[in-house]
Amino acid sequence: MPNPATPSAPPERPSTYELFKAFAIVALSGFGGALPWARRMIVEQRRWMTAEEFNQAFALSQFLPGPNLVNFSVVFGLRFGGPLGAVVTLAGLLGPPLVIVIILGVLYAHFGDLEVLSRALAGITAAAAGLLIAIVAKMAAPMFKRWNSAPAIALLAFAGVAIMQWPLPLVFAVLAPVSIALAWFKR
2 versus 107: which is more confidently predicted? Predict the structure, then answer.
């Protein structure tokens, strides 16, 4: 068992093959959403990032236009492998699912009318919703460990979008400057 007084050595920088393989595994594991699998692999299994570093990189990815996990793969790949790393992680994330979706699309075109298939898809939808709830809880936990303005902003955003049903761009336009100002004054 490692001594808690001595910091553990940071993991070695992953090779481009390891980056591709890791994101291909994430992509192939992530039915209904790959974010839970990406976080588990990067933070818990490989320890390439801390939970806070993952949340920060993912927050940046959400701010950028485009799909969040695609953006995250590029940000992560750039950080660990430069431009080649970004291309490799993106290829690992998108390549295998693209092949699978094309095959499944052809099969669905032929067998999509079967009742058993629609029931199976309903079950898969419920499992995907459960995974999404679990990853949101895991990602929010570090933020709530030390109470500052971040949890308050998160709760206000949730209340504005989910409860009050205000448009997301409006909530973002109001809360982003407030959050930045609070972080600035905290420094």
Answer: 107
